[in-house]
Amino acid sequence: MSKSLQAIRGMNDILPEQTPLWRYFESTVARLLDNYGYKQIRMPIVEFTELFKRSIGEVTDIVEKEMYTFEDRNGDSLTLRPEGTAACVRAVLEHGITGGGQTQKLWYIGPMFRHERPQKGRYRQFHQIGCEVFNLDGPDIDAELIVLTWRLWGQLGIRDAVKLELNSLGTSESRGRYREALVDYLSAHLDKLDEDSQRRLKTNPLRVLDTKNADTQAVLVDAPKMADYLDDESRTHFEGLKARLDAAGIPYVINPKLVRGLDYYSKTVFEWVTDKLGAQGTVCAGGRYDGLVEQMGGKPTTGVGFAMGIERLILLLETLEQIPEEISRQVDVYLCAFGEAAELAGLALSEQLRDQLPSLRLQVNAGAGSFKSQFKKADKSGALYALILGDDELAQQVVSVKPLRGQGEQQSIAFDALAAHLATCIVQG
Ligand code: ATP
Ligand code: MG
Hints:
Elements: H1 19-35, E1 39-40, E2 46-48, H2 49-56, H3 61-66, E3 68-71, E4 77-80, H4 85-94, E5 104-113, E6 125-134, H5 139-156, E7 162-168, H6 172-187, H7 195-203, H8 214-220, H9 232-247, E8 253-254, E9 266-274, E10 282-288, H10 292-295, E11 303-309, H11 310-319, E12 333-337, H12 340-356, E13 362-364, H13 371-380, E14 385-389, H14 391-396, E15 398-403, E16 411-414, H15 418-428
Parallel strand pairs: 1-5, 7-8, 12-13, 12-14
Antiparallel strand pairs: 2-4, 3-4, 5-6, 6-11, 7-9, 9-10, 10-11, 14-15, 15-16
Helix pairs in contact: 1-5, 5-9
C-alpha cells in the first residue's frame, strides 16, 4: 500500500477480533465506577494549547516534546489532548459545577495523543480511563481511588501481577522547602550528574529523582529525602492514607523517588506497576493536585485522580491469559434458510425471536448459499446452534435446531415453541 494510505505510526486500528476484549474491559470498569458513585464526563479531544501549558507545566516531557499542536483555520493554536485531567478541570470550571464547594466524583474514557517513540505498550494514540474527584481533601478519598482500582484488578484477575507504589510530595510549601534543599545538594555534585539531570536541575529539579542514569542515581543515594521535609498536614494525610490501605488489606511499597511526570501533583502520588510488560510497566498512575484548579483560574478546589492505560491493561490480560471464555463467543444461534419462501419466513421468525428474547445473539445468514456453505458459515460464527429452515420445515411450521458444539441430537421445534426452547438451551449451553 502506498505510504499515504497507511495509519500514522503509533496510532492503531482496533480490529474486530480485538474489540470484544476492549468492550469487556471497558464495561467492567464502567460498572465498577457506577457502583462507587462516579459519574461520567465527556470532554472534547482538542483544546486550546494554552490549557495544557498552564496545567501540565511548560517544563514537562509532555509539553516540551510530546504534544500534537497545530494551528486551525482561525489561527488559534490547538492541541490534541495528551491527558484528561486538564480538560476535566477546564470543564468543571467552565460549567461552575465545583464552584460552591460541591463535591464531584467524575470519570472519563477516551483517546489521548503523545508524540513518543512507539513500542510495545507505548503509542502515539492511546486510551485512558481516568477518575477525578473535586472538593474532597481527606485521605479517605485518596484511599477510595486506590481501593476501587484494587477491586478492578481482582475482577480482571490480574491482582497478583501488579504492585502499588506510593509516595507523598507534600504541600506546595513543604515541596518548595524540599526543592531548595535538593537543588543545594545536587548543585554541589553538578559534575557527576548526567546532562539531562543538569538541565532538569534548573527547570524541574524533582524530576532528577526520576533519572535512569546510574551515575546520577549514585549521587541521589545521599540526597535529602522528601519524607524529612513533609509538614504536619502532609504527614497526617499520608499516615491517614496508609492506615486505610492497611485496613483494606492492600499491599504497597513506599517509593521515595516516585515524583510523577506532571507538575501539578501534591501530597499523594501513586502508581500501579507490573513486571510483566517489560519497560512499559505502569498501568495506572495518579495523585492529588490540590493547587491545580486555582492555578487554572478557579477558586481553591482540591483534586485527586488517576488514569489507567487501556492498551497496557489489555496487554496484561492477554499476557496472563485472563480472557473470560464468554467473550470469545459472539453468536448464540445462526439461522440458515434455503429458498425464497424459507428466507421470508426466516426473517419474520427471527424478528419475532428478537422480540421474545432480547438478549439472544442471533445471526441470520445473508447471501443465501447451498446447505454446505451456510452450514460452514454457521459453524465459523461460533454459534452454539444452527436453526435450519427449508421447504420441509416450512411445510410443517417447524425449525430444525442443530447443536454445533456437540451438545446432543438435532431436534424439530415448532415455530411457536422456539423461543422457549432456545431460552432453556442457551442458558444451559
Ligand atoms: P510513562 O512513565 O509510562 O510514560 P506517564 O507517567 O507519562 O507514563 P501518565 O501521564 O500518568 O503516564 O498516564 C497514565 C497512564 O496512561 C500510564 O500509567 C500508562 O498506563 C498510560 N500511558 C501513558 N502514556 C502512554 C502511551 N504513550 N501509550 C500507552 N499508554 C500510555
Ligand atoms: Mg510518559
